[in-house]
Amino acid sequence: MKKIGVFTSGGDAPGMNAAIRAVVRTCFYNNIEPYGIYEGYKGLIAGEIYLLTSKDVGNVIQRGGTFLKSARCKEFHTKKGRQQAYDNIKKHELDGIVAIGGDGTFTGANIFNREFNIPFVGLPGTIDNDLFGTDYTIGYDTALNTVIEAVDKIRDTANSHNRLFLVEVMGRDAGFIALRSGIAVGAEAILIPETQTYINELVAKLESGTKNHKNSMIVIVAEGDDAGGAYEIAEQVKQKCPNYDARVTVLGHIQRGGSPSALDRVLASRLGNAAVDALLANKTNLMIGVVNNQISYTPFSKAIKHHQKLNTDLLDLAEILSY
Ligand code: F6P
After folding, report:
1. Which of 16, 168, 266, 291 has CA atoms 20 to 30 A from the CA of 135?
2. Which ipTM value was assigned to this complex?
3. pTM value?
């Protein structure tokens, strides 16, 4: 293996730069030329592929975002787009590709792998943590810390005014961010897409909080919850309990930014290194993750089915501790 391409794709996540750095430095260690592909699949199709130097990845481990930039690419959904991507890989004589991204990135990689014989491995880079085959994805821990910092501040003002706050967090159609951040901030309720939300049950829980003389109440709402977003749920709660002084905060893209946490930097460094090793060992069409602190390999087709991963013990814990 002489040349390896690396790209970031889909929603950016803190720690992506650390992962690129680890891929590049491991390439140099093995006398392989690392090529940066800009803007994910978009750059692969457009031929935005450039040789990286060790200096290019200096002073990036601590930076959020991705210096290779990222995109969501519709063209890669077409056979014509994928053919163009293949032609560019051949043109630049890339012997293997490391894709850093999430569900959409690996869905694309899986299709590409069936059509073309190019060694392709993936690293889980998404704040959503919605990939099977890794305990944590790169960016998840930092996003959790961002949410916690924000909600702690909301708690201060909620307590001062005896208010109910519904805080909407990201996660697409998964509740990992909501569940863990909810436990960490001591939320009174956590609403996630993996479980059915009943407004009557939520209201009963809030009423019992009021009876227990709680000064403030925080409900964490995952953006993909079946009962709707935080604004819709607040409306439904207000209809049943007009006396609640309810407020809504949607945290939004702030959750995607910021300097990666120590956990994310180390995870990204381990995975970036393992990606090059995997390509050298002729592994392909799989995502590399960390399970029980060991590097693990999961076919793309299995990695993108995240739902088996939610820890139901945490759901029970959240329920017990919210009383
Ligand atoms: O996948 C990461 C994520 O931030 C999701 O949590 C969210 O639903 C989505 O991306 C937002 O995407 P965009 O930045 O394209 O609006």
Report:
1. 168
2. 0.99
3. 0.97
